[in-house]
Structures are given as structure tokens and as C-alpha cells.
Amino acid sequence: MATTLTVNQRVQNIDAAADTPLLYILSNNLELQGPRFGCGLAQCGSCSVLVDGVETRSCVTPLSAVAGKSVTTLEGLPAWYAQQKKLSSAPELHPLQQAVIDEQAMQCGYCYNGQIIKGAELLSKSPQPTVEQIRTAMNGHLCRCATYPRMIKAIQRASRAMGGGR
Amino acid sequence: MSSESPATTFPRRDFLKAGGALLVGLTFAPRVDAQQPPGGAIAGPFTPDPEQLDTWIAIHGDNTATIFLGYVELGQGNSTALLQIAAEELDLDMSQVSAARVETGKSPNQGGTNASASINRGGPRIRLAAADARQALLSRASERLGAPVERLTVSRGVVSVAGTAGQSVTYGALIGDRRFDVPYTGKAPIKDYRDHKVVGASVPRNDIPAKASGKYVYMQHVHVPGMLHGRVVRPRGQGAYGDGARVQNVDADSIRDIPGARVVRRRDFVGVVASEEWNAVRAAQQLRVTWDQPESLPASPAALFERMRAAKTIDSVVMDRGGVDAAFAAARHVVSHRFDSPYQIHAGFGPNCAIADVKADSAVVMCSTQGPYATRAKIADVLQMPEGNITVRYYEGSGTFGRSCYDDVAQAAAVMSQETGAPVRVQFMRWDEHGWDNFGPAHTADVKIAANADGKLVAYEYHGWQHTWSVTETTAQLAAGRSASEGQDGRAQSLTPTNTGEMYALPNWRIVNHRVPGLQGYFKGAPLRSPLDLAISFGAEQVVDELAYLADMDPYLFRRQNMNGDRWLAVLNAAAEAANWSPRKAAAALSKSRVVRGRGIAVGTHLSSYGVAVAEIEVDRNTGVIVAKRMFGAIEAGQIVNPGFVENQISGMLVQAASRMLKEEVTFSRTNVTSVDWVSYPILRCSEAPEVFPVVVKRQDQPSTGVGEEVIAAAAAAIANAFFDATGVRLREHPMTPSRVISALRRA
User: CB of B352 within 8 A of CB of B365?
Assistant: First the structure.
């Protein structure tokens, strides 16, 4: 039974049980490395993707729930950003990915898939978030290395970069 | 391990009979770990020869170098920092050096990546090997260019004759992709630290760009052709370590409806495999297994600590200097309290994962071990295969912060591959990782301390109870019938002068280690970041603080006049200065507001380096919620290879300290662990994270020591001291949860 969905702007026909969590489709069928297993319980945010622009826990989202929808993973974030900003071509990295590098924010980086996906969603809705808005938005994304302060700085840096020098 | 044995050991009964006539062993453990052979390299069978230069460095035709490291990247940046050391001595820039994937048989054995020791143990050997390689290359260049070595200079791997234009040759042209075939001597001249350009610079980490873009291959992403997806099936949460887990019945029919799913069983080891991962996940949840679960755990956390104290411990007098009892009797101010610290979890963010491909007489295992050679031996044991036939290849997983269950998952994959004859990928589920971790052991302590009228420390006595680390992995117990056993009392899991009091000048000083027998109703234990040190600081730094209070002194100034030596003093001052500390007595301005503020300072160590932290917190007296608002951490660890990495470590330690102090505790019933996910074992969240201010105190003239475990011990105690400053009340057990806070405030 095939399910049709769009992943990183490409249409995919997936032949898998309809109740299969999207995470396993992305990791195994499509061999993407952004979303990754953390808890399988929607508690940590490690597996997050954007579904029609909304941050979604792929570990508890059945394949059937994303039929006909557009899924963006960490790999597809630059192109998604270009679409949002109506840029003629996709940059190499989303500004938040670049800011994470510039801030040397992460340690092991395993949770940064979810941190970056959630941060990108926040910046698309609130281009200049306050620190409190950032803390609230990011609260469902755990980081065992406890790099929250640098993640907050990276989001602020990306916000400045996206605001054109503000 | 013999150098780690306590000086004097005798059964508890003898100790009690001695009636205060203490047997004494005065051995000061050296501050730099003596356990490791010189240069951090271990020779052994099926191990590249550490005495050959080619084991460490290869120079390629394109004028780049591959460095073979024995240490693994865990997100701390060591794979970049060790390359900085190599680049510095080779006169290459960072774009010209890369590290080989760590793999048994190909990478040198430098022991495990633990004790925050990559730089202090691994750095010297890399530095000396790079210096050897430089000398070998210079001597070839000397022949090629017809100039004596003394006249040669090197920049970016291009060797030139000083004072002559155009006469040059690259490293690549001299040896490109051929072997050196010379011994490692360790005697080539190395650069003076004052000439360092790459070492000491905050160059960016080489793994972060791929991690930010999604190109980095974590262990959890690795696939091999034809592999099956495996899951282990165990009770939800481990029981007592010595009990293992005993199967009464497995109902294979219970997963009959799941396509391709089947049971893999060896003795008490139960797993499932399926070609589709989701089917393996479902099968593991659906399979009906009846377990024998004895009620051998303590009835409550309080009962756990009572069990430890009542146990037939092995007691060692680690230190008995001066006349402790007389000094206490004569002292002006004396403080004495009991402190309890719970079991805590490594809780790697991505549960451990491994792939094993076991053939009839060989095996390849990919996993996220901190010690590939040690893991190889453990896999050989469960497969009953010679170590030389097994390859362990490292792929980074999520940060482990010590020996989490990576060996367990590697053994599980190996057993399931051997049983099925196919490559098997085992991904632990969250409840496997949380429930079957090797926890950081619980600790309980009686701490007594005294000062004279001038606020000078005159006596200190610390009694600590804890079991040591366990040796037998769960899979080895279940699948191979290996009995649970414990390691020796390692330096990092028993009381030593270094971890218990050495930061202060102490004329009269007694330390007694009570080793609890860990096979009698406790959990599996393993080093968890800042093992024992966090618990020791939690107690010891609170009694020091109380003494300052009794002496009517500011807690920073009190410590300042009692620190042991200039290096401790410099770090203490650096932290206080960063926090803009203005001296006053603690709890001098108690407020009746609902939300009250406090600040605290404390020191901490782990084997070698010097850590100090300041915490500023808020306490909601109605809800009992503590929020760490701002935290400052300073470290001195000798020569700093990359200050940026050290700052990242300090920042992480400050926030993680708040998590461990305010939230984290393994919970359990009489039969099993009950904290099996992020709801039942919460950690600090983004909205709760303090602002952090890291300070690196540089001593480039000194040998490097670790930077990953000292500030967390200091910061934990700083939070506890800040709570007293805010409320005038002490909490002597952690985590400092809202219910504990409220009951402590009510009692006061």
C-alpha cells in the first residue's frame, strides 16, 4: 500500500504499512540523517521535521497522517527557507544552521536536528524573537549536553542575519 | 589497576573493634593519573605497535596528514584538539590534518576515552610522534635540498632552506603515502609553548558543519546490506545487579501476526528481529515474556541509604593526618552533617545503537564505545571468538558522559547476529537506555569540619559510603551466564585526598572510605561525569559554607584564606571576579517575599584539574521551585589546547549541574527501576537554563589536565550554597525538588 508525500520538495511514493512512524520511513526508506531516534515518545524532539511548515515529532506521526503533505527535514531546510523568502536559489545552509556553526553551539549535536528545526519554525513565525520567546519555543527540545545557552545565542544570531544586519 | 588500590583495607568489623585506634595509610594519590602507561599507549595482541611511527601518522602525496588517534570524539572536540597538537608540531595548518576513524587493529590503543583524559594522556604521545615525523621529514629534506637540517624551516608542510629563495620541497613530495618505517622515539625536540600558534587557539571544531547540515553519520544512521533490525526484550527497568533477569516463559506466538518478526533467544537473553524496523519495535513491545522479578531492591530512597550504611562494608582509612579528634575537641566552630546523593543516569540523548555482522570465524561490530579495545574483549567473551578475529569500529552516537550501556548494546547485536546468521542492528529503545543504564552510584556521607576563631580550618573528617563500578554487562549476564562482578576500587570511585579535602590547607584530616558490597541489592554502576566528585562537593562544600557562616565570614573570603596553594587560589579568585562577588555573610539579608534570591560559591575537582563555580538562584517559597538564573564557572587545567572548547565544556557543566541538582534521580520499586523516560526522569529544559559565564584560567607552561568534570562538581555545590543564602535553610539531599524544598522550609 503506497503513500504519497513530499519530502524536501520531492514527491515520494512509499510502500510501507500506514501505521509506520514517519521517522522510520525517513531514516530507512529515504536514508535521511536529519531526523533521528531519541525516545519514540514525542518527549525529546530529536526526530522533529516540519510538516507543512509546522514542527512535528516524526517518531509518533504515522505515515498515513502525512499523506499528501510536505515534509521538510534538516537536509531540506535551506530549500524550504529559500521558498519562504522567495529566493531564486537555495543557500547552502539555513541561517540558523550557519549560526549554530558560528556559535560552535553544540557538543555531541545529536539533538540539534530538532533544535534547528524548531528554531527555524520559530524564526519563520517571529523573525525577531525575544529571549523569553526563544526559551518558550525551545522548551520541548531537550539537550543532554546542556548547550541551551549557546542554542539561544545561535537563534539570536540567525535572527540578526535574517533581518539584514539589524 | 594495582596503583589504584587503597592503601589500607580491612573488614568493617575489625575497624569497629579498633575503637578509634585507626589503621592508617598515608598515600597521596598523584594528581596526574598513574594508572596509564607513559605516553598513553598500550601494546597488545592485534594492536598496532605503538613504538612504530607509522602507527600514529601518515603523510599523503597531496601534502596532508592523517593522524591515528586512540581517542574517540564524543562531542567534546578532542578529535579537533588532538589534531591541533599534531599540526603544531608538524608545521601544518588545520586544513592539512585529519583524523582516521577509530577502529581496533588500525588505531593505536590508548585506553578508553574517559576521565577527561584525551588531552593529558593522549596529547603527549601525539605531540611526540608528530615531532618524530617532523625530524624524519627534515632529514629527508636535508638530503633532497643539500642543506643541513639546522638551516631548514617549515611552513604549511613546505620545507625551505633559510635565506635562499626557491629551494623548497613539500612533505608530500618527500614521503607521500609511503611508510616512515622508523621507530617512534619520543625524543625529537618539541616546540616551546611560547612558540605555539595552533595550540592555544580557538580553532573551530571540524565535526560541527556536518552535524549542522545533516551530513554527519551518527551510529544510529549506519546501515549495512541485508541487515535485520533487532530490539532487546527485557523487563521495563532493571532490578538488582546481582539478580540479572530470569525468564520464566516466552510466548513466541504472541508476535505471530507481525510480518517477519521472530524471537532470538539465548539463555535469559530475549530479543526480536525483523527486516522492517517498525515491525521489530512492535514485536518487542508485543512479545509476552514472563520474568522472575525478585523483590530485592530497597523499599525507598531512604531505605537505600540505610542499606548502604548498614552493609558489611570494606573500610579503608585513606588519610589520617595530625590529631583529628583533639583538634575537633579544641575547635571554636564545628559543623557535622550527613549528605545523601542518589543514583543518576547517563541518559545519552540517542539511545545506544550497534550493528554486528558475525560470521563463523570473524565479526565486525560498529558501535559508540568510549573504548573500542575494551569493547572488543567484551564481544569476544559473548561470541566465544578470539579477539583478533573481531573488529570494533567507532561511530559517534550522542554524548555519553561516562560508561553508559554502549557495551551492552554491542554485545546484544553480536549475540543476535550470531544467532540469526545475518547482520543485526540493535537500537535500544528509550526505556532500555534509561532502565538498564550503568548508573552513577548513590553516595552517602558523614562530613565534619572545624575552624578556629580566626576562621582557619583546623580539622576535617569525611566518611563516605558507595559501591564501586560493575563489570558484567547485562547481555553477558543474560546470554552468556556471566555472573555479576565488581571492579576494583578505582581512584575515581573511592575517596582520595585529591577528591576529599586537598583543595584546602588541612592540618588535621581524616578520610574513611566505606566500600559497599554492590552485589547485594543495588544497581549496576559505572562512571558518570564527575563520578563521586559531584556528591563529595555537595556535602563537603556545604559544611565549609556553614563554617564560614558560624565564623561570621563571607564564604568566598573564608575559602580564600584556607585554599591549598596558588593554583586553587587563582581559580577561586577568577570565579569570584567573574561573578563580581561582593563580600558579605551568607543569608544575611533574608527576605519574606514569595520569590527570594541567593548566591553561592563552591570548589570541585576530578582527578587533576581545579574548578570553582558561583551560582545565583531564585527560590519560589510557595511552589518550592528553584531556578538557576546565572552561573559562573572557572577552571585551571594546565596548558589549554583550545580555549573555545573548554568554554563549551564549562557552559555545559554549569547547566548540567543545575539539571543534576534540581531534577535528576533514579526511582525504583522493590523489583525494578521506574524512571524509564524523560517524564519519569526529567532533566533541565531550555526555559529553566541559567545564563552561563565560563572562565578559562590558562597555565600554558603546565601539563594539560582534564576539563570535563571539575566545574560540574563545584557548580552543584554552589547551587546548594545559594539555596542557603536565599532561605537560611540547608538541603542535604538532592535533587532539590519542589517537594523537598517545601518540606525543608516548613521544618525551618
Answer: no
List, for residues B368-401, the tens digit of each pLDDT value.
999 999 999 999 999 999 999 999 999 999 999 9
Give me the residues of A, 10-69, that contact B with CB < 8 A.
16-17, 19-21, 24, 27-28, 31-34, 36-41, 43-44, 46
Task: Give the Cα separation of A151 and B215 in Å (integer).
Answer: 20
The C-alpha of B483 sits at a distance from chain A's nearest C-alpha, in angstroms, of 30
Which residues lie closer than 8 Å to B18 by C-beta, 6 or more apart?
Answer: none
**Chain A neighbors of B277, CB-CB under 8 A:** 24, 27-28
Class of domain A2-75: alpha beta
Res B3: pLDDT = 33
B692 vs A40, A73, A149: nearest CB: A149
- The number of residues in chain A equals 166
Whose CA is closest to B563, among B655, B512, B636?
Answer: B636
Q: How far, in Å, are B6, B61, B445, B663, B736 from residue B541 at the CA level?
A: 24, 56, 12, 20, 16
Contacts of B347 in chain A (CB under 8 A): 144
What is the model's pLDDT at position B166?
78
Q: How far apart are CA B440 and CA B527, in angstroms?
A: 6
Measured distance CA(A103)–CA(A120) in Å, rounded? 16
B406 vs A contacts (CB less than 8 Å): none
Arithmetic mean of pLDDT over chain B: 93
Stretch (H or E) spanning B221: none
- pLDDT tens digits, B666-721: 999 999 999 999 999 999 999 999 999 999 999 999 999 999 999 999 999 999 99
Q: What is the C-alpha to C-alpha distance for residues B109 and B66, in angstroms, rounded to an integer?
A: 17
ipTM score: 0.98
Question: Where does CATH 1.10.150.120 sit in chain A?
Answer: 77-162
Secondary structure of residue B730 in the 3-state scheme: coil
What grid cell was written down for B235?
A: 523487563
- Identify whether B735 is preceded by a cis peptide bond (ω within 30 of 0): yes
Average pLDDT, chain A: 96
The predicted model gives B200-205 an average pLDDT of: 97
Contacts of A32 in chain B (CB under 8 A): 214
**What stretches of B578-681 adopt beta strand conformation (E)?**
595-604, 610-620, 626-636
- Residue with the three cell numbers 510501507: A16
Those of residues 88-147 in A touching chain B at CB distance below 8 A are: 93, 97-98, 100-101, 104, 106-113, 116, 134-136, 138-147
Q: What value does the mean pLDDT take over residues B162-179? A: 92
Give start-end residues of each CATH 3.10.20.30 domain in chain A: 2-75
**DSSP one-letter code for B268:** T
Of the pLDDT bands very low, low, confident and very high (cuts 50, 70, 90), residue B9 is: very low
Residue B21: all three cell numbers together: 585506634
Residue among A36, A108, A141 whose CB faces B686 most closely? A141
Q: Please, are residues B187 and B71 in contact by the beta-carbon 8 Å criterion?
A: no
Residue B4: what pLDDT?
Answer: 32
Fold exhibited by the domain A77-162: DNA polymerase; domain 1 (1.10.150)
Inform me whether the pLDDT recorded for A166 exceeds 70: no
B470: nearest Cα among B445, B439, B446, B449: B439
Q: Contact B400/B346 with Cβ under 8 angstroms?
A: yes
Q: Does A148 touch chain B (CB under 8 A)?
A: yes
- Chain segment B264-284, per-residue pLDDT in tens: 999 999 999 999 999 999 999
Give the model's confidence band at B40: pLDDT under 50 very low, under 70 low, under 90 confident, else very high: low
Domains of chain B (ranges; CATH) run 53-213 (3.30.365.10), 219-294+352-427 (3.30.365.10), 301-344+439-747 (3.30.365.10)
CA distance B219 to A34: 13
CB contact under 8 A, A33 and B430: no
